[in-house]
Structure formats: C-alpha cells, structure tokens
Amino acid sequence: MRTGEDDGTGGEGTVAEGTEDLNALAAAYGVETSYMDWRGRPADVPETTITAVLTALGADVSSPEAVRRERGRIDRERRSRLLPPTAVVFAGEDLLAADDAEIRVELATGGELRLAAGETAPAVVTGRPPATSAEAAGFRTAYPLPPGTPLGWHRVRARRGEREEVAPLLVAPSRAPDPGGRAWGLMAQLYSVRSSRSWGMGDLADLRELATWSGGELGAGFVLVNPLHAGEPAPPVRPSPYLPMSRRYTSPLYLRPEEVPEYAAADPDARRRIDELAGPQRARSRETGEIDRDAAWTAKRAALELLAAVPLTPERAAAYAAFREREGEALTAFATWSALAEEHGSYWPSWPAELHDPRSAAVAAERERRAGRVEFHRRLQWWLDEQLAAVQGAARTAGMDLGVVHDLAVGVDPGGADAWAYQDLFASGMSVGAPPDEFNQRGQDWGQPPWHPQRLAAAGYAPYREMLRHVLRHAGGLRLDHAMQVFRLWWVPRGASPADGTYVSYPFGDLLGVLLYEAHQAGAVVVGEDLGTVAAYMRDVFAERGVLGTSMAWFERDENGAPLPPERWRELCLATVGTHDMPPIDGYLNGDHIALRERLGLLTRPAADEYGELARFLGEWKELLTSLGLDTADMTAALHAFLARTPARLVGVSLADAVGERRTQNQPGTTDEYPNWRIPLADAAGHPVLLDDLPRHPRLPAALGPVLG
C-alpha cells in the first residue's frame, strides 16, 4: 500500500497515518519493516508480511483502528509494569526496573538484598533493538546489585504503593568461558564417520574413538560434530540433523547397543540376536551407498528393546532413578510424545484432537495405556546420557582441552516433541529461514516454528535453558548454528516466499545471559556461526561477551572483495575453510557447487558468470597463498597452513577435507533433489573411508600437518 492512497476505511485516518501506526506497532513487537540485504542495499518488507507476523505475535491488526488500540494497550501495559517478565543481569551490571519502586532480591542461596535506585540507564543504543526484556519495556532506572552477588537464578520483588510484582532474576557471568590457548580440532558429520563396528552410520562409540585418536595421537584440542538432537521415534527417519523433533533430547540413532551395560548382563540368546541384527548394518558401513537411517534404526531399536527387557541391578536401578528425577516432567513429556508418535505419526497436529494438549486427561490416559513404550523411550535417553558422558570423558583423558563441541540447531520440526510440549511458546503460522544471500539467492525456509519472544520471556526462558543444559551437560563447547538466533530470526509467513519474510528481534541480552550462565556451569566455550547477513552490532556483542565467531576462508574478504590476509582475521573465532553447506575443498575448487545448483535450477544468474567469478576468486587465493610462501599445488595443505597463520583461537579442519572427499553434505534449498545428510565419508576416488583407516590414511599427513604444530 502506497502512502497517500485511499484505503477505503471511510474516515478512520489517512493511509499515511495507518502505515505510521502499523510501523510503530511493528517496532514495539520487534518486527522490522525494512532491512539491509546481503548486497548492503535497503529492502522493504511487504505489508502483508508485517501484518501476518504481528497477527502471529498476538496483535489485532484487522483494521487501522485495531492497530491504534493495540498501540495504546501496549503503552498502558508498559507504563503499569514494575519489572520485566524475566530479569537477566550480567555480573557487575544493574537491574533495570520501574522508578520509585522498592526492590528486594531473594537469593537462591538464602538471604535477601535490598536495592536502591541509582543513575538513569542510557537509552537503547541506536542501530540495534533492545537488549533485554527490561529495555524493551522501557525501564531506565538502574538498581545496582552489590559486588559479589552470586551467579544463578534468584527472585526479585518490586513494590510501589499497593502494587507488587515478582519475577525470576538471573545473574549471569559477564563473559563466556575462555578457550585458553590456541587449539585445533576435527569437524565431522558424525553419522558419516563409520567404523567396522558401526551399525551403518557413525555413533557415539565412533565419536569416542575419533576423539581418543585425534586427541591422543594428533594433539587435537576438540572435535566438533553435527547436532545430535532427537529425531522421529519410528521410521521413516528424516536425515537432516538441523530439523529435529527435539533439541531437548538426543537421537538414539547414535547409541551403540553393545556399549549399553545391560548388553553384558543379557542372556546369550539375546546377545546372539543383537549380533545378528548388527551384521547387515556393519556390512553397510563398508559400502559407498547413501546412509540408510531407517535400516539402522529398525535394527538398533529391536536390539535396544531386547536390552530394555534385561533387569537392572540395584546399582543400575538407583542410577536410573536419579536420572529420571533430574529430568522430571520434561523427560516424561518427550517419552509420551515418542510413544504417541509411534502410533499416530511424528506430526502431532494430525493426531486425534484430544491428544493435541499434552496436559489433557486423554494424553494422561494414553500415557498409562502405553506405559511400556513411554518407559522404553525414557530408558533410551538414560543410555544416551551415559554414552555422551563416556565420550567427553575419553576426550579429556586423551588430552583434549575442550573435548566435544556440540552443535545446536536453530529450531525444531513443527510436528515434533518440543513443538507439542511447548506449543504455546511458538508463533503459529510462521517458519524460520534466511533472506536471499550470495549462495542461496532465493532465500531459505527451514520449516521450523520460531519461539514467541514475549511468551518465552514470560515463561522465564525455562524450555530454552533446559535445552542448553542438556546439550552442554557433556560438552567442552557449544556451536550455535545460525548464531543470529539469539538476536533475530527471519520469519516467513506460511505460504509466502522466503524472500518475503522479515526479521523479528529477540531480547538478545536475556538469551545470551542464559546461554553464558549454562556455559559457565558446564565450563564450555561458545562458538557462534555468524556467517551470512549479520548486523555489525551482533559481532560486537559476541566479542564483548567472549563468544567466538566463525570465520570461513571462502567468506573472509577485504573491502575490495579479495581474500582477507591472515593477519587481518579476528582472534575470537573458529577459523575454517568451509562449512557443511558447501562442498569440501576439492569440490569447491572444481566448481561442484555451481554445477549442482545449475542442475537443480537454483541459480539466479548464468552459470558462466558463476564459473567466471569462481575462477577469478580462486586466482586471487592462489596469488595470496603464493605471496605467503605456500605451495598451491596442494590447496588443501596450503589453506590449512593459511588458517594456522591467522590469530584465530580455534582452527577447525573438516574431516571430509582431510581425506579428499568432494561431495557436499547439504545443498540448501533442496530436500529430496539431493541426498542431503546421507553422504558417507569417502576419499577422492569415491572409496569409503572408515574410522579404522584414518591412522594410516595417506592423505592425512599433508592435510593436517600445517595445523599440528
């Protein structure tokens, strides 16, 4: 709608006034009405997108008058509040609350603090959205916390006259844990890293062996793997690790049945049957075909059901009881969803209507009826917790300073366990994606429902912090996929093109505070994957809080578009050559990504232009590498030597690069058009590379040599 047009509302105001009100309401909700695209050019958001997003956030935008009423309601609500819904304060900083309020903090450790008002807080920094729920609510009065206030979750009370409010208060560390000295590590898609003992795909026992070998023999400080989040409980199991059913729990696909303690206690017939189930899957590990998760899970599930029937010893029963008590209702909800999904499918909106509410009597009755299956899915998570602990323990024993760096996906499947259990905290009718960029010129729609920012804050960020606690429990680090998820997400209305989405802001100070607190509790470093379209303030905030960014060779360019010299790279980062969304080095050098996108119809300009630009870019790279005295005859070794010359605190080497693999693991913008996430590790000739082969692999010394020193 253009300013000045007749909107046909019969005197409710001019279009200019209506647009101004709508834009102001959008700003109040953190919805952007324009943004800078990947070329640095301003782009306007369609009004249909703005209204759809505001509707998903709960605003009535059905008419200009409704928009004005909504603005008035928000203004009145903000003026009346004494506290934000959840207060997050970094150590050494001030609590923001209403002026002229009596503030008391009830400490989790016991005791109480009375806070006095201090100076007025600075206004929100121009060029970025409010950092916290308190800033978003317009609070400017600062209440300093005494030095030494313990980190952790407390409770704050505010009183003014007869009015009193209570809110959770998190005092978070001011910075993420420091990685210490420089370290390098392997990056691997775990499912693709198979051994002679794997059940058709890499598992936690393989990860333990990879960490032990690379840490003990090569001096690696970490190993970074793909998200291990839970998928479907029954076939078909979709391959993407970035579209999980739950980020709160782990996929039992990664269990090694023989490593479950009950295997040793099982009777000979059960062990023989398990070995028979394993045989065909082990044979698949030596083949070059696509990874078959359905076959692997069908066999493993049968084996694990046999192990679940083995009686627990008193010591094991006590350990299991402790695990169940620690996990509480979240574990019960996940196991219930899993049991129901086995019967009704993994998309809960298609279930019978009476099962849509996880707190309903019908769900309770079904949980009782399927108690055996609920118990089975609880047991799987216990075994996973034990095997994850064993992996991290082995990594540290092998000498790794960090150990396993786990990956956190951006979101979850809209029909999955998290979306069912926490459905009130997601924005309906929306999915998360990304605007068009250089490598995905049509934009992306990842099909994941976004958190509702205001409702998540009102819930004390409980599901978010529980998810982080789970992923970090046995981790030396956490990689945030699409790290902008703590600042803003690209929301795409259902049915719209990904290019017609918009950014919705989140209280990044709150989300970072929760993240840093959980990382502090785990002693784990945090790495943000801040590639693509990133506002400058985001990287500044990460650096201020000790969160490492990600610098990728193919994306690091100077002001003229040429490769960035190593001395100009930032220190607080994980430095890599590429990512799982691009071909390995050998494939990139040969333009495999261009050929693939051309074949799939994903290019928005002629392929000849793409090849020409790649040739110019690679020529610039070879010129830079040669000027540094590096031999470009082996580009893999040269690029890794280049990474070793940057000041980056962490250097990641893709295992696929190291063995000469050419195929990419994922082509964004596709589903079944390309075998995403199903490519087993192979060498340049297409021969499978097993974990057993790595210590003697002929290519590894040259590929890894530059970073081993």
Description:
38% of the residues lie in helices and 16% in strands. It is an alpha/beta fold and 709 residues long. The chain has 3 domains: 15-79, no CATH class; 81-172, Immunoglobulin-like; 183-695, TIM Barrel (Alpha-Beta Barrel), CATH 3.20.20. The strands form 6 sheets. The chain has an 8-stranded parallel β-sheet with strand order 20-17-14-11-10-23-22-21. Strands 3-9-8-5-6 form a 5-stranded mixed β-sheet. It has a 4-stranded antiparallel β-sheet with strand order 16-15-18-19. Helix 5 (204-218) links the parallel strand 10 and strand 11 (222-225). Residues 1-15 have low confidence and may be disordered.
Short précis:
InterPro entries: GH, Glyco_hydro_77, MalQ_N. By secondary structure, the chain is α/β, with parallel strands linked by helices.
List the helices and strands and how they pair.
Elements: H1 15-28, E1 34-36, E2 42-44, H2 47-56, H3 64-80, E3 87-90, E4 94-97, E5 102-106, E6 112-115, H4 133-136, E7 141-144, E8 152-160, E9 163-172, E10 183-188, H5 204-218, E11 222-225, E12 229-230, E13 246-250, H6 261-265, H7 268-284, H8 293-308, H9 314-344, H10 361-369, H11 371-397, E14 403-408, H12 417-421, E15 430-434, E16 444-448, H13 453-458, H14 462-472, E17 477-480, E18 488-493, E19 502-505, H15 508-522, E20 525-528, H16 536-544, E21 549-552, E22 573-576, H17 585-589, H18 592-599, H19 607-627, H20 635-645, E23 650-654, H21 655-659, H22 700-708
Parallel strand pairs: 3-9, 10-11, 10-23, 11-14, 14-17, 17-20, 21-22, 22-23
Antiparallel strand pairs: 1-2, 4-7, 5-6, 5-8, 8-9, 12-13, 15-16, 15-18, 18-19
Helix pairs in contact: 1-3, 5-11, 7-8, 9-11, 14-15, 20-22
Protein name: 4-alpha-glucanotransferase
Enzyme class: transferase
Domain MalQ N-terminal beta-sandwich: 83-173
